[in-house]
Amino acid sequence: MLKSDDWLTRRCMEYLVKYGEAAGAERMVDIDGSVVIPTYSTTIPQLGIDITSPELYGKRVKTFTISRDYGVTKGWEDIGIPPWNDPDYVRQQEQVMKHWMRRGVHQ
Q1: Which of 32, 33, 70, 91 is the most buried (most CB within 10 A)?
Q2: Do 1 and 41 belong to one domain?
């Protein structure tokens, strides 16, 4: 995958290798699921990627992937955390999550 013709796959794998090296990992392992943590932004600065970019149209995650934070904007009463009910924050977070969902991420 490090030699992939797909720039996104290659860039993500380069990042994972560097992260693993910094953490002292001895090898990579296969996974069957993952979690993304959407932010207020649509960019992933460490990778230089904007998930709204036309270059990413049609690209989807390869494993079952869920979003960790999206539920905070809805249903916060049920899990006992302070409300994140600022209308601007909720609106922006929902827009960001729409882009992640287009990539195959589940809420």
Answers
A1: 70
A2: no
